[in-house]
Design goal:
Blueprint lengths: L2 H14 L7 E4 L6 H9 L5 E6 L9 E5 L4 E5 L2 H11 L4 E11 L7 E7 L19
Antiparallel strand pairs: 1-6, 2-3, 2-5, 3-4, 5-6
Length: 137
C-alpha cells in the first residue's frame, strides 16, 4: 500500500467514523475490461444495482456491483469501503445501489467510469435467493 493510499484511508476513517453514513457515494473500480466497458456503455443514471460480497481466494473483501437491468458485473468496490460494508452487513451480503452517473467514455476519454450510490436496503431484488444466473467474468 502506498503512502498516499494510507493517508486517504486514515482521513476517510477519521471523517466517516466507524459507522457508514448512507447513502454512500463512490466510484467503481475494475471497469476497463472490455465486457464491463460494453455494459457501462449501455447503462444510464438511476439503473438499479446489487452490491454483492463474493469472497475470492486472493481477494476476500471483493464486492461486485451487478447491473440489474443488464445482469452483468460492472466492476467492484475499493477495498477499504468493501471492508466497511462487510463489517456493517456481514459476509456474503447483497445490498441495493444505483448508478449516480456514467463518467467519461469516447470520444473524449478512452474508458467509461461509473459513480454509485449505495443504500443500506435489500429491496431491489427482494425474494431472490439464487444468484447463479448472474453473468460474471
Amino acid at each position: 500500500m502506498s503512502i498516499w493510499s494510507s493517508i486517504k484511508k486514515f482521513f476517510r476513517r477519521l471523517f466517516r467514523g466507524k459507522k457508514l453514513q448512507f447513502p454512500v457515494y463512490c466510484k467503481l473500480h475494475g471497469v476497463k475490461k472490455p465486457v464491463r466497458q460494453g455494459a457501462l456503455a449501455q447503462s444510464k443514471a438511476e439503473d438499479g444495482l446489487q452490491l454483492v460480497h463474493v469472497p475470492l481466494k486472493d481477494f476476500p473483501h471483493n464486492v461486485y456491483a451487478y447491473s440489474i437491468p443488464l445482469n452483468r458485473i460492472l466492476g467492484y468496490l475499493e477495498e477499504t469501503l468493501a471492508k466497511d460494508l462487510i463489517a456493517e452487513f456481514g459476509e456474503e451480503f447483497c445490498i441495493d445501489g444505483r448508478i449516480r452517473a456514467i463518467l467519461g467514455g469516447p470520444p473524449k476519454y478512452k474508458y467509461y467510469g461509473c459513480a454509485l450510490r449505495i443504500y443500506n436496503t435489500k429491496n431491489l431484488m427482494a425474494g431472490v435467493e439464487d444468484f447463479s444466473s448472474l453473468h460474471g467474468e
